[in-house]
Specification:
Layout (H helix, E strand, L loop, with lengths): L2 H16 L18 E2 L14 E2 L7 H4 L8 E2 L4 E2 L9 E6 L10 E6 L13 E8 L1 H5 L3 E2 L4 E8 L11 E15 L13 E6 L2 E7 L10 E7 L6 E7 L6 E8 L5 E7 L9 E5 L8 E12 L9 E10 L3 H29 L5
Antiparallel strand pairs: 1-19, 2-3, 4-7, 5-6, 6-19, 7-18, 8-18, 9-15, 9-19, 10-11, 10-12, 10-18, 12-13, 13-14, 15-16, 16-17
Length: 356
């Protein structure tokens, strides 16, 4: 086979791998999210009814106007943070778990937002706020894709009459990954471009609503899109008819080749290989590191339209080759325990009566 024909064949094989309709979609050997060891030091079960989020308004909006407003918000249990790119949802509240949820679950987290976009302004188009798992800080490291990380969550889709009356994206479940990519701003020898840098990107799944108030829509429904294909475009993957509103289980895994694998099913049962919906190299990137996962609340940024009140439960992180991550977590726990012991000793010494 000559070089030209080899290149053509290689390109066709690459397209076949990422095509949702192709039998080659399984060539990357997708790992079912939930495989391996659960890293309980991140994620949440929301069973503490005193769970709260400390907002630090005004919110960050670096993505829209380059403004990172510190300090940023965080949950009282330290497991969730406001991101620097966009603010956190305006309302986050622990609520009784809706019917049909996980066995034994008493509480879940409802989240929705009103003032997305730039604080003090209204952009009158769809904006989003993020609730970000505090993975990097709590783990003390990012996760190499060779360690095979995955995330799983349960998401409750409320009845159609509770949705913001707008067709389009309403909710996202995404991960933050990074790879090495050419640094377009760096300059090499003789003025040439050169160098590489860590490039973050954010694959994930979006839940879209199709409102019957639109003239061309006969019945309310929803669908899942995946972000994204090799160009970063969203791909419509799975229809959610009205009778399937309620609990859904969603998950993503990243394998050693840097491919992202997407899974979703109605209900709260664990994901299986049958729930695989596609595998992709978003933006033509091959992931090298898993950083964190997060949720998006979307609404029309007009100061009046609350986003749809989605409920999430038991977001979890799993790692197949978990020994390094477990060791890092254990070191963090040990350091925290020693620090607490020293602090308590200082307090006790201050309380001791002085000898006269």
């Amino acid at each position: 086979m000559n070089h030209k024909l080899f290149c053509i064949a290689s390109c066709l094989f690459a397209v076949a791998i990422v095509s949702p309709s192709s039998d080659f979609a399984h060539a990357a050997r997708p790992i079912v999210p939930g495989t391996g060891t659960e890293i309980e030091y991140v994620g949440d079960d929301f069973e503490d009814p005193s769970w709260d989020f400390i907002h630090q308004f005004p919110k960050s909006s670096r993505e829209q106007d380059s403004q990172l407003r510190s300090p940023t918000g965080r949950s009282t249990n330290g497991r969730w943070i406001e991101g620097p790119e966009r603010g956190q949802p305006d309302q986050m509240k622990v609520v009784p778990t809706p019917a049909g949820g996980l066995a034994g679950s008493k509480y879940s987290l409802m989240l929705r937002t009103l003032n997305s976009g730039i604080p003090g302004r209204h952009l009158y188009d769809v904006q989003q706020d993020d609730l970000i798992a505090n993975c990097i800080s709590r783990l003390g490291t990012t996760i190499a894709v060779a360690e095979t990380p995955s995330v799983v969550t349960r998401v409750y889709l409320p009845p159609a009459d509770q949705w913001e009356d707008r067709s389009g994206p309403h909710f996202g479940f995404r991960i933050s990954a990074s790879t090495m990519a050419p640094d377009r701003e760096s300059t090499g020898f003789f003025g040439s471009r050169g160098g590489m840098k860590a490039e973050p990107y954010w694959p994930g799944m979006w839940i879209h609503f199709r409102s019957k108030t639109n003239k061309k829509v006969e019945e309310d429904s929803a669908f899942i899109t995946v972000r994204g294909d090799r160009r970063g475009r969203d791909i419509k993957m799975k229809t959610i008819p009205l009778e399937q509103f309620g609990w859904w289980t969603m998950g993503m895994s990243v394998t050693g080749d840097g491919m992202v694998h997407y899974y979703a099913k109605p209900g709260v049962e664990d994901l299986t290989a049958a729930d695989h919906i596609t595998s992709q190299f978003p933006y033509s990137y091959s992931a090298q590191r898993f950083r964190t996962f997060f949720f998006d609340s979307c609404n029309k940024d007009d100061g009046k339209s609350w986003s749809t009140p989605f409920v999430i439960d038991d977001p979890q992180l799993f790692v197949v080759n978990a020994s390094r991550i477990i060791a890092s977590v254990n070191r963090k726990i040990e350091r925290a325990a020693k620090s607490k012991t020293k602090k308590n000793a200082k307090v006790a010494n201050k309380r001791k009566p002085r000898n006269k």
